[in-house]
Write a structure and sequence with these properties.
Layout (H helix, E strand, L loop, with lengths): L2 E5 L6 E5 L26 H5 L26 H4 L4 H20 L19
Antiparallel strand pairs: 1-2
């Protein structure tokens, strides 16, 4: 079955839609589908919590915290599809933001205060 990128008339969000009448069998030993990450599903938990999303369907944050107190977001859910190195970086930065939220400060290393950036004091 073919799919197309289409706007949902009810939600206004873009997503994949099946194209009717395009079903077929393709003989193969292995089929890999690469359709990419489109956005976190808003229906369900995000909607129930009242988390704000942007026009692309990503969770809106300020210093990794959503508009809902104690709810944080990072990685693809926050910034959209990206490389795994960004996901790792986002996870570290979000952990630091959560630590600061809970403790009022953080000893965790972050992008803006990397231990590698400190000058040696003699």
């Amino acid at each position: 079955m073919d799919i197309e990128w289409a706007k949902d008339p009810q939600t206004g969000r873009f997503g994949f839609a099946e194209v009717a009448g395009t079903e077929r069998e393709i003989p193969c030993e292995l089929a890999l589908l690469a359709v990419g990450f489109v956005a976190p599903p808003f229906e369900g938990m995000l909607q129930q919590l009242g988390v704000n999303i942007d026009e692309r369907g990503n969770v809106v944050t300020n210093h990794y915290q959503t508009n809902v107190e104690k709810i944080f977001s990072a990685g693809d859910m926050r910034r959209g599809q990206s490389l795994v190195v960004w996901a790792i970086s986002e996870g570290r930065e979000a952990a630091k933001a959560v630590d600061e939220y809970l403790m009022g400060f953080s000893y965790l290393e972050g992008k803006s205060d990397s231990l590698l950036m400190l000058e040696e004091v003699v």
